[in-house]
Write a structure and sequence with these properties.
Order of helices and strands: EHEHEEHEHHHEHEHHHEEHHEHHEE
Number of strands: 12
Number of helices: 14
Helix content: 40-55%
Strand order of the largest sheet: 2-4-1-5-6-7
Shape: flat
Distance between the termini: 25 Å
Radius of gyration: 23 Å
Strand content: 15-25%
Length: 366
């Protein structure tokens, strides 16, 4: 896909434990000291989607291929990262390469796991990282303003337009407003994107709680919820330790019973992956047949030729039209033939905007 979500946070908040659970591996080292993770760990994770099983059953598909997301476990950050403290420069560069951020906050007490600041305070932790990202963005914008100011003052129209946008962003960031919260004119989006600002990336806060608080949260997660609401962000409550234990259970029934004993309906990881997927403004379409049922990922609003191009580049180049059946109609009428007979198959051209859950058959010619 090329879409990457970075897992960030202060040292020792459970980032690597969460990454291990997400990827069902132990590739990310876990230890009780800062900067345990130095080089980022990268893993591809299947996006859970119950619709795949239903479609496969109807079509008698031989295999199921889910869509995937890429997660990156990034080194822990400390105060002063924007000035290069700790692994600051490396940390910020790794975030810049990601499309969205999962910010893990420590919401559990433990005498066995040290806290880099000496006490558990998820709000202060969140502010440390937000501040460092803001400071890094401020430096980025200031450099760009300096680089184009002379050209703008000489009358260059494009530079003058960019300068106005940059100065607006600099003022907002100086006031502590992240780039994702600034309102932009539609025609200014390309200028904004050229900056690759860290605080422009969508963010999901993950409250890592103790096992006993996994179902309902605790006083720390309540504090984070208030913060998240004020920032118009989203959050998920999980226990990384529980998630890692579940990920090691090979029998799905064992996992279900384990969750049931804890009062949980599904793994927290499912909610994290789904939230990350939504965070990136993505949607799923399917191709279904006797050989395979497969999920594909495209941005919301993508047109039929773009969806065809995800299947194969030749499909986009030679796109003629697409046969479309919604997931609901496919299931209701027991497959493609039933949907056709019920008049639920649509023939769409190049201007069709693909909808979530569409089952697509592409007709092309080269």
């Amino acid at each position: 896909m090329g879409f990457k979500t970075g897992i960030v946070g202060l040292p020792n908040v459970g980032k690597s434990t969460l990454f291990n659970a997400l990827t069902r591996t132990s590739s990310a080292q876990t230890a009780n000291f800062p900067f345990c993770t130095i080089d980022p760990n990268v893993g591809e994770v299947p996006v859970p989607d119950r619709r795949l099983q239903e479609l496969s059953k109807i079509a008698s598909s031989k295999i199921i291929i889910p869509t995937k997301m890429t997660f990156v476990d990034i080194a822990g950050l400390v105060r002063g990262a924007s000035r290069g403290e700790g692994l600051g420069n490396k940390f910020l560069a790794n975030i810049r390469e990601c499309d969205a951020i999962i910010h893990v906050l420590r919401c559990f007490q433990s005498s066995e796991v040290t806290h880099v600041s000496g006490k558990v305070d998820p709000i202060a932790d969140a502010d440390i990282i937000e501040t460092e990202l803001l400071l890094a963005d401020l430096e980025t914008v200031q450099k760009r303003i300096t680089s184009i100011a002379k050209k703008a003052n000489s009358g260059d129209k494009e530079s003058k337009k960019a300068l106005i946008v940059f100065e607006k962003i600099m003022k907002a960031i100086s006031d502590g407003v992240p780039a994702r919260a600034i309102k932009y004119e539609e025609e200014d989006i390309l200028i904004v994107n050229s900056l690759q600002l860290l605080t422009a990336k969508p963010i999901l806060y993950v409250c890592n709680v103790a096992e006993s608080a996994a179902a309902k949260g605790n006083k720390f997660s309540i504090e984070v919820e208030e913060l998240v609401n004020s920032r118009k962000a989203k959050m998920v409550i999980i226990s990384a330790v529980i998630e890692e234990e579940i990920s090691k259970l090979e029998d799905p029934e064992d996992a279900r019973l384990f969750l049931e004993d804890l009062g949980l309906e599904e793994p927290g990881l499912n909610r994290i992956i789904s939230s990350g997927y939504n965070l990136l403004n993505l949607q799923t379409f399917f191709t279904v047949g006797p050989n395979e049922t497969r999920a594909w990922t495209i941005p919301n609003g993508a047109l039929a030729p773009q969806a065809a191009g995800k299947i194969h580049s030749d499909f986009e180049k030679g796109f003629i039209r697409a046969e479309i059946i919604s997931y609901t109609d496919y299931v209701k009428h027991n497959g493609e033939q039933g949907a056709k007979e019920a008049g639920k198959m649509k023939i769409e051209g190049k201007s069709y905007s693909v909808q979530e859950g569409d089952i697509i058959h592409v007709l092309f010619n080269l």
